[in-house]
Every structure is written in structure tokens, then in C-alpha cells.
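Before anything else, study the sequence and C-alpha cells given here and see whether the fold suits the sequence. Record follows:
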Amino acid sequence: METMTATATVQASARRLFPNLSLDRIWAQLLMEQAQKKLIKYRTMTRQFEAKYGQDFSAFRQKILASEPTFEVEQDYFDWEMAVTGMNDMAEEINHLSGLVQHL
């Protein structure tokens, strides 16, 4: 019973916040906004690493794989790799959701 109440509350809020949109379009729009926020976060991280190391990830990766990095540099490598992967994933997700929103 509690789930039904929560669902009804969410639907009512969605209809107030996004008048004249279907629930499917509202969901797609909210998901796209979240993906855009994450894309911005990952791009910011990538730019910070590029500024810190003065190179792009590809060049940094080659340098790291050919050396024995310190713990800090190795951690930056993993964080940077996650940011690059996240950026690509979010760009793909935004593209997918954009197509969906246009058809709803």
C-alpha cells in the first residue's frame, strides 16, 4: 500500500512540474538531465587532469604503462580513466535519450 501512495505522489509531482508531458517523456527528460550533469562532472575531472599533467589521457596512459608510477599518480590514472569512460558513457546515454525524447 505504501508503494502505491509513493507512486501516486511521484506521478502527481511529475505532472505539476512537467505539465502537458507524458510520464514516459518526463522520465526520459529527468534521466537526460542527470546524464548531462554527470557528463559535466566527468568533463571537469578530465580537464583538471589534463591541466595537472599537461597532456591528454592517451599520452598519460602510455607514459604510465611504460613506468612504475607513484601511488598518487597511479590513483590519478584510475580516476582519470574512470572520468574518460564516464564521459563516453554519458555522451552515449544522452544521445540515446535524445532520440527517445524526440519520439515521445
Observations:
- The chain has four helices and no strands.
- The chain has a mean pLDDT of 93.
